[in-house]
Amino acid sequence: MNFHLVEFAANSNKIWSKHKVVKNDLPTPLETDIWVAMNRTTRLIQSEISAALKDAGLPPLKWYDLLWSLERHGGRLRPFELAQDTIFEQSNLSHLSRRMVSEGLIEFVSYAGDRRGKMLQITDKGKELRKRMWKIYGPLLHEKMRALGGAEGWQAFLASAGRQAD
Q1: Four-CA torsion 69, 71, 72, 76, nearest 10 degrees
Q2: What is the pLDDT of residues 6-48, one digit of tens each?
């Protein structure tokens, strides 16, 4: 049995000032609207950021995700750890990592705990590329996230997603 938020109202003090929760096995219309809006908005933001990166002559956004994951975990991870930390399927990660190795952005290094095991390690070139990508990605991401700050932003978010469906 699931519990669902079925109505909400916002005021200037709290985003969710009142709500009613009911038992239900199916998503409510509000939950469905929010889910659809989140997915549409995510795709829209990713599309805008990807276009800006491309216009700047930089690689796709997923390259940033892989580089950032490696860098924030000390510069190296085993492939299965990288797959767990990112949203990549193992097969996509294998293809992407081979491409990035060929570009000199990451490299395979031996894993001390297992002779057959390999780790992916970010290179200095990869760190520099990630920083260049963040100069485009970061400000756009901040702009989009600030637009959602507060009740008015979430109401606009839902209204925007509804317009996109029309």
Answers
A1: 80
A2: 455 554 444 544 556 656 678 888 888 888 888 888 888 899 9
